[in-house]
Amino acid sequence: MSLNPSQLKHVAHLSRIALEESKIPALVQDLNAILAFAEQLKDGRLDDLAPMAHPLDQQQPLRADVVSETNQRDILLKGAPATEQGLFLVPKVIE
Amino acid sequence: MSSMNGWEVVIGLEIHAQLATKSKIFSGASTAFGAEPNVQACAVDLGLPGVLPVLNAEAVHMAALFGLAISAHVAPVSTFDRKNYFYPDLPKGYQISQLAQPIVSGGSVTITTGEGEKAVNKTINLTRAHLEEDAGKSLHEDFAGMTGIDLNRAGTPLIEIVSEPEMRSAAEAVAYARKVHAIVQYLGICDGNMQEGSFRVDANVSVRPKGETKLGTRTEIKNVNSFRFLERAIDYEITRQIELIEDGGTVQQQTRLYDPDKDETRMMRTKEAADDYRYFPDPDLLPVVIDQALLAEWKASLPELPDAKAARYQSEYGLSPYDAGVLTSARAIATYFEQTLNAMGSAADAKLCANWVTGALAAQLNKANLGIEQSPVTSDALAGLLLRVADNTLSNKLAKEVFDAMWAGEGDADSIIDTRGLKQITDSSAIEAMVDGILAANPDKVAEYRSGKDKLFGFFVGQVMKAAQGKANPQQLNEVLKARLGPSEGSS
């Protein structure tokens, strides 16, 4: 598997990462080297192994359904650049 | 209006049901509806750095109950994935969902469309039901050109219930959505409130020429908050797609919003391809393992579900399939019906009770836009009224008058009957006296009747009822009148 420059731009856009046009060739090269390294996994014999969802051989601990958090709005809103009436304000996003 | 002739409609539904847990799926914040903005959003819900999700056991339990209720496979091991996209009401930049190994796969529900002899049953298969977290809410008005974000809903547990594209009309889609709605409420895993967004239905709709096996391009309808709107939105969309294709156009894959004021759907956005979400296993969450012994316990704990209850109402109470279907369509209606029957004790009459619950009571609730659990006439109060119908104290007509008075808050049935003097006259000598009085006052009509004008029978009934102020027992009145008048010669 390898990426071409337009695929790289697409993935960068989905991740909302701004790329300088001049750096794209070098990034494509680096990323493709990483992908090639990962390609080695294909050489392993995996046929009789189930896909692994997590490297730890453990199961998810569960918590009881209890409300343990109290209202922390004032503290949490402090970090926001703009707020009003208890809401976080962001640039208009309606399409 | 385009003709449906020659076209087949294909509909699949995605239903998001909010699970009725007290706390969120990955945090200890409350899920209660209607709080001030952001007072129920904690650091985990906000996706602040350094926090970790911890899964709510009750969300797993509820999702598994749904799977058991529809005879689906409940996975012994399921996993969580990240669905990546950017939107301000999703603070982490990804939604925790399940893609590769959902907790529930397969299963089916049976739907009924049409009534009486035209009723048709159909099995709709489900693809899957998976656990995921809800997003927050964006408020687009009144903030000086900015959007307000309320994250109280962020992290509320959902099951997304995905059907196979097996529905062939809006009516089937609504019947399926109603059945799923009934099941989640019977299980007590979702409050089913569509106005508050606890139960949200998205419809994937496409059309294809009859006989074609390949699916047509589909559109997804969102923003439907009632079953009535669901049916209208799908019907609108079917017509739109057929007309578009017949006029030489092609359907674009896109998301459309239903606007109930204009009764139309309109484009919201062209759909991103699925791989744009770049799903991958969430490294913060380990595989969820459900112990098989526990699963067996949960299965044994399932309540009687709508189909089983409807079957029992028919076999045990002799109700019609239609009445049984209406009474079991929501858990609250079935509960009310059963409580009314219980409160009637040994005089319980299921058919009478069914008639009142699906008739007068349903009509009043509908008019007042109330759910049955908010009925001003409680099941005990209705039972009190029906006892007086069963023992012939009240005719049906008088019972309706008493019911209306009960609805208006004038007290229980017995006290209303007392105050208004509504007791039905069942004393046969009193009825005979009234009949005799009317016959004596109308000798010419009696003669006409006896010489063959048998239609006058109704006149006599009316006159006696008038004299009795509507309170004479109708069967007794008829019998006495027939006996006193003798045969009408012209009658055959």
Any overview of this molecule?
The complex is a heterodimer of chains A (95) and B (492). By secondary structure, chain A is an alpha+beta fold. Chain A starts with a helix and ends with a strand. Chain A has a domain at 5-43. Chain A contains three helices and three strands. Chain A has helices at 5-14, 24-39, 73-78; strands at 62-63, 83-84, 87-91. Chain A is flat and about 55 Å long. Chain A has a two-stranded antiparallel ribbon. Chain B is of the alpha+beta class and 492 residues long. Chain B has three domains: 7-294, no CATH class; 304-420, no CATH class; 428-485, Arc Repressor Mutant, subunit A (Orthogonal Bundle). In chain B, strands 1, 3, 7, 8, 9, 12, 13, 14, 15 and 16 form a ten-stranded mixed β-sheet that branches. In chain B, helix 7 (321-328) packs across helix 9 (350-368). The longest helix of chain B is centred in the middle third of the chain and has 20 residues, at 227-246. The interface between A and B is large, with 38 and 52 residues.
